[in-house]
Amino acid sequence: MSLKGVILLKNYSCGELNKRHLGTEVSLAGWVDRRRDHGGLIFIDLRDREGIVQVVFNPEVSPQCHEIASQMRSEYVIRVVGMVTARPKGTENSKLATGEIEVVIQDAEILNPSLTPPFYINEETEVDESLRLRYRYLDLRRPRMKQNLILRYRVERAIRNFLDSKGFIEVETPILIKSTPEGARDYLVPSRRHLGSFYALPQSPQQLKQLLMVAGVEKYFQLARCFRDEDTRADRQPEFTQLDLEMSFIDEEDILGLVEEMLTSLVAAVKPGVKLLTPFPRLSYTEAMENYGTDKPDLRFGMKIADLTDIAQESGFTIFESAVASGGKVKGICAPGSADYTHKQFDELNQLARGLGAGGIITISLSRAAGSRDELTMEMVRSVAAKFLTLEQIKRMASRLEANPGDLLLIIAGKPEVVNLVLGELRQEMGARLKLADPAQLAFGYIVNFPLLHWSKEMGRWEAEHHPFTMPRDEDIPLIDTAPEKVRGRHYDIVGNGYEIGGGSLRIYQAELQRKIFRLLGYKDNEIEPLFGHLLEAFSYGAPPHGGIALGIDRLVMLLAKEKTIREVIAFPKTQEATDLTFKAPSPITEEQLAELHLCLREED
Questions:
Q1: Residue environment code for 414-426, b if the CB has 16+ CB neighbours within 10 A, otherwise e
Q2: Is the pLDDT of residue 355 over 50?
Q3: What is the DSSP string of 59-85?
Q4: Of 436, 466, 501, which residue sits at a domain end?
Q5: Of 111, 181, 200, 306, which cross-links 77 as Cys (Cβ 3.0–4.6 Å)?
Q6: Spatial separation of the C-alpha atoms in residues 129 and 145, rounded to whole Å
Q7: Which residue has the higher pLDDT, 98 or 1?
Q8: Which whole number is the average pLDDT over 189-205?
Q9: Are residues 78 and 136 in the same domain?
Q10: How far apart are CA 244 and CA 225, in angstroms?
């Protein structure tokens, strides 16, 4: 049936109708969310992007429309024309924004029927992720996913508006660029016109934004698409979006202050109910590793790591003494209220620790029977280490960990890097088990004073902690030749709720200093020119001091949406195996395409 006299498919959105529209004739279009046949009347919840409205098919108003409605099923695309009326008293639906009204249909049309969907669209039920990604276009109809897309749009709009008000201009940079080593594996694109040569998809616009500073842009930003051929995980995808931002004639404080102001205003605009920790705390890299065991700590709760080495080495406990004798550390955390943990729960924690390289966990349970830490007796302590430790040593450990009766001490002994790693993971695990982090809070923080370099045992050379374009601290530049391990970089990370949200630095802008860093990283002079000659040449033409930061949009929106993976805030993400189930990509190409590119595939042995 065609609708007569209707110019627009829809002149109102379903979600915008309310009592102000009573008596208005409206044209609506959307999807059948639910259908209820009450014998005489047929009720359909009609859904579009803006919401849901109840439409009523009454055979006394239009027998023909009632007959059409009897054919409608879930996810049919329909359009209707009808009159907005008040719902009968007692039938209002307070769960709907449109719950006080309904639309009595006078004309109707099925625009497109639908197969039965492979999962419910109108219910938030658990659905296998591979099925959701196979039918992503259906998954995106679901309310939660739709709201995530809208939230992402609002975040990006707020960022653009803020940076525009601060004098930045948005500049698009190329997707097809040169392959240069920047830390991750490139995606490569063969060139048909230049046989044997390849473009690379950008891991980030790092060198491009530096060239824009040389060009005198001064304040640049871009919501940039980036590509890295690395293993996926909950907060990592092969292709992702980052806010790329660069400024000239600035120092660290200019960038950190700008980003804090931007994120504070952004959260207030898009998620006003979120508690934001302000001002953003700042921790040195050393503080973060020593106190939290990670350079991306969740700052919503305490449970800091404490060093117990000086107490442990006097204990006579072989595990502690041997660790200290070999240059290791003994450190621990306090899990509040967990003294009654069972053997099964201890085994779970031990498996986690051993999986990360520790020999195991030494646990000390402090009985709730004591009124205070001072009232503890050896009978109130449960631990395999109790017969090697004095009561005074246990009390000193408990004091340093700020533990009280009823608490559980988790202690690791071993190499410093292993101890920090394991306790960092145990802290996250116990924080989650004990629900210590406020789910309504967003705790951003800055990590600063990173080392410029780290030594790679596998590669047998120095590698950049951040990337090779990071400016060393001025006072540490003389150490580059004599003590590279002591050189600190002028770079910084921003973390949020246990995730790295972004990172940046002040950049090297002098050609000779950049050459020196390249050489320190193992590049020979005959390699530097073909890889980085374009950048070094640009630095020879009056490059200004500059720096910037890149923030992961996907991770930021994931936190704001309270999702557990960034796949939930990306319209068409890849799976854990980096495949696209909707398009079935990656996929083979034809022999003709390979021939055109002068490529051939070689079978692996």
A1: bebebbbbbbbbb
A2: yes
A3: TTT-HHHHHHHTT--TT-EEEEEEEEE
A4: 436
A5: 111
A6: 13
A7: 98
A8: 92
A9: no
A10: 10
Q: pLDDT per residue over 123-161, tens digit each?
A: 889 999 999 999 999 999 999 999 999 999 999 999 999
CA distance 370 to 375: 6
Over the stretch 307-344, which tens digit does the pLDDT of each residue have? 999 999 888 888 998 999 999 999 999 999 999 999 89
Amino acid residing at 120: Y
CATH number at residue 178: 3.30.930.10
Express each pLDDT in 286-299 by its tens digit.
999 999 999 999 99
Do 131 and 273 belong together in one domain?
A: yes
CB 143 within 8 A of CB 124: yes
Mean pLDDT along residues 268-286: 94
| Residue pointed to by tokens 């009450």 | 38
| Residue carrying the six token digits 């859904």 | 47
Nearest alpha carbon to residue 490 among 551, 548, 552, 550: 548
Looking at residue 55, which CATH number applies to its domain? 2.40.50.140
375 Cβ partners below 8 Å, 6+ apart? Answer: 405
Range of the domain at 48: 14-112
CB contact at 8 A, 561 and 230? no
Longest dimension (CA), the chain: 93
**Do 207 and 469 form a contact (C-beta atoms < 8 A)?**
yes
- Phi/psi at 562 (nearest 5 deg)? 60, 40
212 and 251 share a domain?
yes
Tell whether 237 and 275 lie within a shared domain.
yes
**The whole model's pTM is what?**
0.91
| Local structure of residue 126 (DSSP, 8 states) | -
Which structure tokens are listed for 324?
Answer: 């200290």
Q: Convert the pLDDT of each residue in 437-456 to its tens digit.
A: 999 999 999 999 999 999 88
Average predicted confidence (pLDDT) for the chain: 93
